[in-house]
């Protein structure tokens, strides 16, 4: 082997690799002046001061600040950016596409469910393959398909159309019904065919029968009229009562006809000599359908139920004539208001108290009562009597108290003046004894006087009603001689009916045929009393003028 070629051992190869590594590292070091490696080691360890140590110590502070900023405990641009999230990535949103996210509550399916979906998809495909053979041009109610199967069936070679009990099968053409199964059955039930029938000639035969031109037993019988019924004479009589012309039909009392312009008239046959009348008809229907009811002048038409009149046209007209309506009126509301008395005036309690004292057991016409009272014409217990509420009552003469009064007796008489007067209508003067009555009529008069005649001859005493000097009514009593010597007291009594006239002055007079002095005794009120009152008469009674003669 030449000296230029020699073997390379393993150790030599390792050294070569280390040298190469050292060279690579030293190539990265730049040294421009001499360096004391021992001093450099001290400086690197921090045992002595150096620019490197100062830089490292300064960097340590910077590193602490950087850590604070990374921990976001101090402000910095990075902290501000993080706080504002200015570098954020936009959220893709909720959805089912490849670029969106599913919502957290999205329902997912299991493997078993996915398998079933696939199986259903295959079934749907099979259904579609079958429905491709169906053609449907309108809505079909599949719920009724079983019913259609039941209605339309094939039995052997026959097609059977069925429906439920009580239902019909209807046959339509172009949307219009032609007939139904019931009509077909009625037709077949009522057609009896016992031999062959030529339908083609049936229509012609029917026309021939109708026109009596088809030779047959029926035509022969019709021609001979062998089956005719005799015409009853009673029917002939009825028909004879019917007359008719071009415009009028008449049967007995019924007259029906037409009048221009195209009006139907119904009228009684006896009215207007049996001729249609434009004024005396009973009912008319015009050509536009207007219905008119009518009666001749002076007659009424009545509305009846079970032939009992309820009201007539006159009553209706009176009602309408007396009702004035100038605006719309709701009668239902009016009826309700009347029923509830919505417009009532409050009823004063004082009036209610007064009404409580009135008892009425039957119908009373207060207007009539007012008129009768004004005319002194009051019915008593349903009798047509007139009790005059005119009276005059008195007691004692010449004194209002229990005191005797002396009077002079004479033939001419002395006026008696009754006291303690109670009167109504009769005016009595308690000073003069003159009195008048308000109404001419009959009056019942009761007057008494008790008088002591004193000593004297035989005497006749009298009690008289006078009008001036004319005696109207008189009562007398006789005193005998024996009695006259004993100071006898006499009771004169007047009791009777007398006719008195209004506006006439009357008075009571006591007279004697002898002169003397008498004493009127007033010791008892009943000794001297007066009653004058009107008599009860019928309203139509006229009192004769000679009743006071």
Describe the model.
With 549 residues, this protein is of the alpha+beta class. Among the domains are: 241-318, no CATH class; 386-548, Jelly Rolls (Sandwich), CATH 2.60.120.40. The protein contains 15 helices and 27 strands. Strands 14, 15, 17, 20, 23, 25 and 26 form a 7-stranded antiparallel sheet that branches. It has a 6-stranded antiparallel sheet with strand order 5-6-7-8-9-10. A hairpin with a 2-residue loop joins strand 21 and strand 22. The termini are far apart. 9% of the residues are buried. The model is unreliable at 1-10 and 378-383 (pLDDT under 50).
Task: Outline the secondary-structure elements.
Elements: H1 10-26, H2 37-45, H3 51-70, H4 77-84, H5 111-131, H6 145-151, E1 152-155, E2 158-161, E3 170-173, E4 176-180, H7 181-190, H8 199-210, H9 217-224, H10 233-240, E5 242-244, E6 248-251, E7 254-259, E8 263-268, E9 283-285, E10 291-293, E11 302-305, E12 308-312, H11 313-321, H12 331-340, H13 349-356, H14 366-374, E13 385-386, E14 391-395, E15 405-409, E16 414-416, E17 422-424, E18 427-428, E19 435-436, E20 441-452, E21 459-467, E22 470-479, H15 481-484, E23 489-500, E24 507-512, E25 516-520, E26 529-534, E27 537-538
Antiparallel strand pairs: 1-2, 3-4, 5-6, 6-7, 7-8, 8-9, 9-10, 11-12, 13-27, 14-17, 14-26, 15-25, 16-24, 18-19, 20-23, 20-25, 20-26, 21-22, 21-24
């Amino acid at each position: 082997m030449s000296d230029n070629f020699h073997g390379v051992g393993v150790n030599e190869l390792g050294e070569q690799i280390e040298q190469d590594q050292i060279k690579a590292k030293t190539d990265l070091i730049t040294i421009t002046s001499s360096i004391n490696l021992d001093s450099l080691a001290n400086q690197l360890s921090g045992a002595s001061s150096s620019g490197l140590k100062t830089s490292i110590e300064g960097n340590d502070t910077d590193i602490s600040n950087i850590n604070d900023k990374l921990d976001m405990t101090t402000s910095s641009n990075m902290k501000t950016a993080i706080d504002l999230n200015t570098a954020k990535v936009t959220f893709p949103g909720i959805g089912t596409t490849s670029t969106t996210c599913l919502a957290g509550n999205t329902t997912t399916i299991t493997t078993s469910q996915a398998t079933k979906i696939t199986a259903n998809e295959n079934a749907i495909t099979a259904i579609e393959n079958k429905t491709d053979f169906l053609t449907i041009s309108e809505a079909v109610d599949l719920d009724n398909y079983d019913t259609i199967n039941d209605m339309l069936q094939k039995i052997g070679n026959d097609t059977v159309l069925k429906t439920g009990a009580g239902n019909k099968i209807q046959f339509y053409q172009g949307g219009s019904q032609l007939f139904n199964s019931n009509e077909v059955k009625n037709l077949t039930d009522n057609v009896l065919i016992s031999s062959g029938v030529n339908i083609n000639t049936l229509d012609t035969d029917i026309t021939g029968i109708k026109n009596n031109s088809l030779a047959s037993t029926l035509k022969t019988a019709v021609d001979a009229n062998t089956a005719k019924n005799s015409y009853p004479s009673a029917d002939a009589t009825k028909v004879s009562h019917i007359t008719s012309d071009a415009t009028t039909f008449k049967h007995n009392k019924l007259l029906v006809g037409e009048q221009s312009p195209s009006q139907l008239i119904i009228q009684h046959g006896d009215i207007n000599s049996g001729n249609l009348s434009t004024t005396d008809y009973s009912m008319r229907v015009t050509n536009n359908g207007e219905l008119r009811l009518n009666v001749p002048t002076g007659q009424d038409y009545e509305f009846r139920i079970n032939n009992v009149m309820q009201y007539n046209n006159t009553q209706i007209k009176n009602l309408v004539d007396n009702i004035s309506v100038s605006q719309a009126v709701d009668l239902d509301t009016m009826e309700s208001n009347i029923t509830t008395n919505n417009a009532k005036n409050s009823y004063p309690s004082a009036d209610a108290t007064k009404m409580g004292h009135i008892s009425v057991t039957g119908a009373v016409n207060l207007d009539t009562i007012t008129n009768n009272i004004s005319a002194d014409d009051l019915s008593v217990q349903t009798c047509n009597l007139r009790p005059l509420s005119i009276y005059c009552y008195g007691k004692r003469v010449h004194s209002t108290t229990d005191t005797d009064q002396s009077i002079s007796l004479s033939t001419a008489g002395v006026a008696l003046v009754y006291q303690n007067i109670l009167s109504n209508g009769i005016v009595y003067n308690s000073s003069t004894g003159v009195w008048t009555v308000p109404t001419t009529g009959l009056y019942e008069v009761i007057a008494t006087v008790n008088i002591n005649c004193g000593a004297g001859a035989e005497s006749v005493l009298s009690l008289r009603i006078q009008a001036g000097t004319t005696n109207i009514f008189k009562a007398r009593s006789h005193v005998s001689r024996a009695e006259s010597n004993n100071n006898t007291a006499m009771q004169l009594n007047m009791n009777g009916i007398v006719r008195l006239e209004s506006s006439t002055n009357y008075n009571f007079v006591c007279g004697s045929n002898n002169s003397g002095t008498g004493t009127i005794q007033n010791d008892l009120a009943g000794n001297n009393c007066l009653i004058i009152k009107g008599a009860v008469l019928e309203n139509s009674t006229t009192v004769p003028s000679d009743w006071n003669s």
